[in-house]
């Protein structure tokens, strides 16, 4: 045991005693500065003064000292709690709660029932709100601690049962909301810790909670807690039935309220459909939510607003039920839930525009509150996606269909943001299959369009301009529209626009759109994406480049009154960069066009950006490394044909080889290959896309000068190995020559090696079976044409890989090495002179 | 290292054997199973399911369920035709079977409902695999076709009516029966490796929708397994060798093998019938026609363990994480009762699709993926206490209290004034009353005197 540990063991009781002596009020001393208590709490928790934890080999006197210190602490706390002065009593109750959480297990188990009895007294007798609140919190901590000891389950259950009546009484009493909130928290603790204790009071608890939910007085935070408890309630019974009935009750209640609210705003058909799904004809309806008591409660003041708030609260309950874990399998009325969402979303304030003047005040209020309802029902949809996962698959297509219709007509940014986030969730949870459905709707909107224009961006130093100027972009510009006005005029106009149109939500909308696009690219960036990638890649590049054009925002540097706007802007920059990265990394068609810009941007961001942006940029540079460093090896054929040939010789001594067939078809492929498709990967690696056309021309030129190559090839091998590149490029030249299979103008290395294989092992075949295109291999392959085709495809693909896929480069060094190797091999092989001899064009002939 | 188990089955009625991959210890052997090739599946590690070979061709198919901790078959289902391959998605919500007629059957596990049945191939389906994001299904058949299906599109009746075909891609490059299919990571960027009796393995790209590599083997390949890092794949051949073929690996120039084949694992054994790769990518398990299961160390290319399943050939090998309900005896604790009962098995699979619109409810475990509500774990008293103190301090120190003080002072002074006033009134009244009384007395005295 080291010295510091001994000290620590010894000082703990001393420290505790000094706290008692100087900082905790006692019965005689008046309640001093409340800050003293903060210090007490802090030291208790930092040094675990109440833990009485002893290491093995602790001297007995140290143990005794710590036990006696905690004893006196408890004595004082209990004395304080029974004090008549409200402030001291409050402190005592609070400290008792802290003791419940900090003390040792032995002490807790030995005395929790005493503490429990002490605390329960306070919530049974009418006292001060502060004391009630403190008692609820301390009791809830006591129960939480108790639930950790499985052996105390029985006792805990009986204790918790005692609590329920007083808590319900508190709820039903007309006290302050603070007390209600704490009582609800206590109730939820009881349900989670000792579910079976609530069983007998199930209906009364439900009634009390629903009564509070439906009342006009509950604030938002209270109703959140209330519907959390309501969704917990079925857990107390823990069977599938009670969950389902609770869900059904809530849905029917929503339905009844909607009927009142939407009376003249919706068509009857949808209403009846939902009704039928909820309660199939002939089925007995469950008892109303909250029992008969709640049914009677009808407040006649402001009925429209009350209706809306009740509906949204009930939908909130559904969300909680769907997302909180439940121990057993339950049956979820999916169709009814989906129909409910669809029903709410279909009610569109504008559809009744035709008879606007005849709207009553109530209908008008409801129309004005429709966005809130829509938001809640979208939330319900999102909860279903989270809660049900793949089980939702059979219904996804329907959901997307009505959501898309809704999205097209939806204009409020808050709602669009929510729909985007649902799209994102769908993409993440449903996988590639959904891309086909979502690509069009996510890529085909204008939410990001206004960022296309050059001037839609903040100018000058970001850190100094005002919030409005930061977030000014709000001009509708078509994609790729070239602005004709000079930049100065544009910026003038921007300044004029500033005051009117700008707010944070438009930026948030763009962030949501970018996130949805990012998810789309991650999940299905290369799946049937040819149509939209060509639009989206440049768009994302532009958005990212424009967003960061005037420097990166450092969150910590922004002046304090700009905090909200600047952090939103930083979020926007981050979202733009993330989406851009996704578009760069997601394999597309050819090398990413904007890689250069992307690298520059990310590199700058990693140096200049604030903490989050810099971290992200550094990470993305690492992610992109496979694209700009030729490290990864391509999934394409390498060039060890010779090895192949020898293998074939071994495996198929008869000469009826499969490999030759394969390679001959390959040769044919090379012949048929449209030349323009072939671009040297090295070339493409060494230049940007804009130069691609030139390269192709160059390649043609090289091919055009066949003579030089031929000479060099048919001359000696040493010469070729000096010129590996011209040789390699030349491999495409076989495509131009329409020679037959017996071609011997094998200038390209690939063609040369193929030729060797064709001629050598199947030489016998030529005489017996005719041209190698008609070769049939051992009978496993029925149709050699199909085989050729297959191989064609493969080669085409390989060539395409070379030509277009940025992943497929090799370093120059690698390449030349390989060629060097080939050369060696070729010089080993005797057949090469034969080929050369067989070449009709060859000069050496 | 996480415990992994090896499961093996055979077409003869030899049951399902189960060993620990790393220790070699044998677990419970499940009885009465003569599985079809690719017909053994662990449904989300909750229970085992296997489609059964039938003697007579005309009989309906059968699919059996076993609990992990009981040897006997617990649930028997009898689909309308013989099912060859069987596959379940990773969440264990759907089971899909491929029939001998080329139909695919999609059941919901929790209810046993046959949700969809569709004609997928012209001849019997031989293998079924889920893509790594569980939204794509890949099927191979005796007609040499490999097809990719999107589950969402299959459920989407409206789209179904519009489009000519249901599949996303159909690859018909194999000229003979497809024997095995594996798929890699990467969602839509994943690759598929298919083996066929035409002696080739083909590598397909889902995103490009075409074959990107064709590898010709010296013998028919019946089993493929992919290295988890997708560096190479292993192909088990009928000549008893396991060839190692390059995916992302460099092909060193070897003189012994055909293009892309970079080596082989071999021991004198009969044809390799199935392969499975362990999660760490080091161990490879092969099943062979001679009934032996060999565990290979792929780094050293040697055999490290041999299991013996039965005399008959092996036709399925699975490597799984050790399921929680395996071996009730070894796990002791308070919740042993729950363990003893294991996972409640779902009802048997239905025979026909329900035409009536009863799809209104879904049976689901809600939120079982997230264990506990976070808020429950934390104690609140100290936090509430701090907050309360803050509130008290704000009340105690702010200007509000001074105002309050002033108001109280004002109140008290007003009350004092009131008291003064009342006092005055009282005195006045008193004097008045006394005066009145005295006056009346005087009057009475005067009257008496007059009398």
UniProtKB/TrEMBL annotation, chain A:
Gene Ontology biological process terms from the UniProt entry: rRNA processing
Keyword Nucleus: yes
Matches recorded under SUPFAM superfamilies: ARM repeat
Residue ranges with Acidic residues bias: 836-845
Domain of life: Eukaryota
Domain Pre-rRNA-processing protein RIX1 N-terminal: 27-219
Region span, Disordered: 817-845
GO cellular component: nucleus
InterPro entries noted in UniProt: ARM-like, ARM-type_fold, RIX1_N
Subcellular location: Nucleus
Family classification: Belongs to the RIX1/PELP1 family.
Protein name as it appears in the record: Pre-rRNA-processing protein RIX1 N-terminal domain-containing protein
Taxonomic source organism: Lithospermum erythrorhizon
UniProtKB/TrEMBL annotation, chain B:
Record bears the keyword Repeat: yes
SMART domains listed in its UniProt record: WD40
GO cellular component: a single term: nuclear pre-replicative complex
Location of the region described as Disordered in the Swiss-Prot/TrEMBL record: 321-356
InterPro entries: WD40/YVTN_repeat-like_dom_sf (IPR015943), WD40_PAC1 (IPR020472), WD40_repeat_dom_sf (IPR036322), WD40_rpt (IPR001680), WDR18/Ipi3/RID3 (IPR045227)
Keywords tagged on the record: Repeat, WD repeat
PANTHER family from the UniProt entry: WD REPEAT-CONTAINING PROTEIN 18 (PTHR18763:SF0), WD-REPEAT PROTEIN 18 (PTHR18763)
Name of this chain's protein: Protein ROOT INITIATION DEFECTIVE 3-like
WD repeat intervals: 118-151, 171-214, 265-306
Pfam families: WD40 (PF00400)
Origin superkingdom: Eukaryota
Key word Repeat present: yes
């Amino acid at each position: 045991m080291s010295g510091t540990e001994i000290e620590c063991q010894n000082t703990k009781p001393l420290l505790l005693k000094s706290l008692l002596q100087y900082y905790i009020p006692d019965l005689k001393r008046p309640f001093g500065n409340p800050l003293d208590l903060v210090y007490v709490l802090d030291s208790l928790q930092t040094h675990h003064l109440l833990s009485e934890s002893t290491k093995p080999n602790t001297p007995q006197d140290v143990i005794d000292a710590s036990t006696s210190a905690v004893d006196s602490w408890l004595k004082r706390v209990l004395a304080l709690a029974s004090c008549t002065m409200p402030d001291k009593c409050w402190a005592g109750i609070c400290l008792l709660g802290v003791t419940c959480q900090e003390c040792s297990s032995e002490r807790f188990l030995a005395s929790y029932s005493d503490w429990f009895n002490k605390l329960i007294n306070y919530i049974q007798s009418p006292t001060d709100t502060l004391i009630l609140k403190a008692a609820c919190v301390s009791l809830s901590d006591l129960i939480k601690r108790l639930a950790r000891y499985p052996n105390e389950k029985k006792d805990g259950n009986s204790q918790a049962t005692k609590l329920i009546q007083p808590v319900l009484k508190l709820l039903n009493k007309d006290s302050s909301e603070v007390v209600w909130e704490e009582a609800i928290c206590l109730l939820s603790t009881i349900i989670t810790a000792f579910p079976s204790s609530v069983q007998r009071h199930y209906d009364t608890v439900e009634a009390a909670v629903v009564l509070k939910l439906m009342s006009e007085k509950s604030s938002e935070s209270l109703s959140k807690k209330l519907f959390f408890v309501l969704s917990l309630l079925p857990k107390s019974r823990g069977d599938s039935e009670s969950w389902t009935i609770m869900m059904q009750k809530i849905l029917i209640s929503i339905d009844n309220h909607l009927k009142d609210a939407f009376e003249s705003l919706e068509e009857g058909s949808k209403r009846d459909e939902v009704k039928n799904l909820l309660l199939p004809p002939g089925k007995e309806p469950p008892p109303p939510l909250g029992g008969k008591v709640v049914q009677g409660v009808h407040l006649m003041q402001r009925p429209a607003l009350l209706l809306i708030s009740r509906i949204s609260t009930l939908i909130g309950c559904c969300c909680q039920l769907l997302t909180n874990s439940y121990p057993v399998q339950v049956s979820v009325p999916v169709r009814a839930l989906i129909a409910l969402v669809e029903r709410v979303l279909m009610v569109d304030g504008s559809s009744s525009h035709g008879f606007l003047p005849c709207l009553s005040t109530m209908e008008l209020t409801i129309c004005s509150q429709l966005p809130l309802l829509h938001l809640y029902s979208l939330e319900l949809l999102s909860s279903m996606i989270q809660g049900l996962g793949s089980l939702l698959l059979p219904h996804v297509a329907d959901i997307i269909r009505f959501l898309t219709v809704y999205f097209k007509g939806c204009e409020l940014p808050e709602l669009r943001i929510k729909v985007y986030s649902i799209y994102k969730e769908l993409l993440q949870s449903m996988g590639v299959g959904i891309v086909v459905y979502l690509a069009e709707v996510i890529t085909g909107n204008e939410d990001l369009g206004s960022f296309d224009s050059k001037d839609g961006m903040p100018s000058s130093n970001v850190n100094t301009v005002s919030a409005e100027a930061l977030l000014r972009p709000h001009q509708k510009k078509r994609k790729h529209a070239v602005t004709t006005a000079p930049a100065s005029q544009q910026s003038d106009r921007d300044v004029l626009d500033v005051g009117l149109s700008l707010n944070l939500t438009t930026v948030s909308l763009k962030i949501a759109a970018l996130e949805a696009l990012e998810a789309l690219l991650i999940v299905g960036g290369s799946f049937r994406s040819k149509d939209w990638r060509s639009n989206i890649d440049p768009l994302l590049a532009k958005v990212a480049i424009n967003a960061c054009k005037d420097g990166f925002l450092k969150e910590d540097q922004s002046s304090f009154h700009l905090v909200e706007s600047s952090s939103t802007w930083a979020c926007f920059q981050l979202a733009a960069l993330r989406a851009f990265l996704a578009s760069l990394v997601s394999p597309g068609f050819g090398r990413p066009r904007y890689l250069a810009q992307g690298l520059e941007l990310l590199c700058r961001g990693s140096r200049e950006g604030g903490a989050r942006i810099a971290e992200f940029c550094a990470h993305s540079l690492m992610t992109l490394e496979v694209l700009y460093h030729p490290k990864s090896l391509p999934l394409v054929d390498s060039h060890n044909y010779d090895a192949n040939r020898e293998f074939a010789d071994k495996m198929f001594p008869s000469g009826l080889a499969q490999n030759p067939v394969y390679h001959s078809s390959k040769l044919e492929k090379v012949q048929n290959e449209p030349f323009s498709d072939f671009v040297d990967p090295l070339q493409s690696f060494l230049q940007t896309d804009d130069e691609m056309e030139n390269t192709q021309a160059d390649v043609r030129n090289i091919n055009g000068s066949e003579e030089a190559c031929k000479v060099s090839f048919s001359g000696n091998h040493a010469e070729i190995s000096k010129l590996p590149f011209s040789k390699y490029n030349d491999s495409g030249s076989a495509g131009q020559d329409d020679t037959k299979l017996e071609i011997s103008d094998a200038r390209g290395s690939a063609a040369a090696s193929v030729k060797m294989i064709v001629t050598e092992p199947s030489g016998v075949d030529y005489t017996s079976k005719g041209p190698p295109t008609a070769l049939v291999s051992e009978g496993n392959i029925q149709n050699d044409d199909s085989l050729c085709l297959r191989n064609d495809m493969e080669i085409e693909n390989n060539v395409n890989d070379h030509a277009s896929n940025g992943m497929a480069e090799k370093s120059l060094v690698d390449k030349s090495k390989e060629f060097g190797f080939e050369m060696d091999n070729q010089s080993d092989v005797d057949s090469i002179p034969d080929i050369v001899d067989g070449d009709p064009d060859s000069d050496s002939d | 290292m996480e415990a992994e188990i090896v499961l093996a089955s055979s077409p003869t009625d030899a049951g399902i054997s189960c060993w620990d991959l790393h220790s070699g210890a044998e677990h419970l052997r499940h009885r009465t199973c003569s599985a079809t090739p690719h017909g053994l599946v662990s449904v989300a590690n909750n229970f085992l399911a296997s489609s059964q070979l039938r003697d007579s061709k005309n009989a309906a198919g059968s699919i059996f369920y076993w609990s992990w901790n009981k040897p006997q078959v617990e649930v028997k289902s009898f689909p309308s035709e013989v099912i060859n391959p069987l596959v379940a998605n990773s969440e264990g919500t759907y089971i899909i079977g491929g029939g001998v007629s080329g139909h695919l059957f999609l059941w919901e596990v929790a209810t046993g409902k046959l949700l969809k049945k569709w004609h997928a191939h012209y001849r019997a389906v031989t293998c079924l695999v889920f893509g790594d994001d569980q939204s794509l299904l890949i099927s191979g058949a005796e007609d040499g076709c490999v097809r990719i299906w999107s589950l969402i599109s299959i459920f989407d009746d409206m789209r179904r009516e519009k489009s000519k075909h249901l599949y996303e891609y159909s690859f018909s490059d194999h000229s003979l029966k497809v024997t095995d299919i594996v798929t890699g990571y990467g969602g839509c960027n994943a690759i598929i490796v298919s083996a066929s009796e035409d002696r080739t393995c083909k590598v397909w790209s889902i995103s490009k929708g075409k074959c990107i590599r064709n590898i010709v083997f010296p013998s028919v390949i019946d089993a493929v397994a992919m290295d988890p890092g997708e560096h190479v794949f292993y192909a088990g051949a009928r000549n008893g060798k396991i060839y190692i073929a390059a995916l992302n690996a460099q092909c060193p120039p070897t003189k012994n093998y055909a293009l892309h084949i970079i080596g082989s694992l071999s021991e004198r054994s009969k044809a390799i019938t199935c392969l499975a790769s362990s999660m760490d990518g080091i161990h490879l398990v092969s099943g062979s026609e001679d009934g032996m299961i060999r565990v290979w160390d792929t780094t050293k290319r040697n055999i490290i363990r041999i299991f013996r399943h039965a005399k008959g050939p092996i036709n399925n090998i699975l490597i799984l994480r050790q399921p929680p309900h395996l071996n009730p005896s070894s796990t002791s604790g308070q919740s042993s009762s729950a363990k003893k009962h294991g996972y409640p098995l779902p009802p048997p699979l239905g025979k026909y699709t329900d035409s009536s619109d009863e799809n209104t409810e879904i049976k689901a475990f809600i939120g079982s993926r997230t264990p506990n509500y976070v808020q429950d774990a934390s104690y609140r008293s100290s936090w509430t206490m701090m907050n309360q103190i803050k509130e008290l301090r704000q009340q105690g120190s702010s200007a509000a209290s001074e105002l309050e003080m002033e108001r109280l002072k004002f109140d008290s002074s007003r009350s004092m004034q009131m008291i003064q006033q009342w006092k005055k009134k009282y005195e006045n009244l008193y004097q008045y009353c006394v005066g009145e009384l005295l006056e009346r007395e005087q009057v009475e005295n005067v009257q008496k005197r007059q009398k």
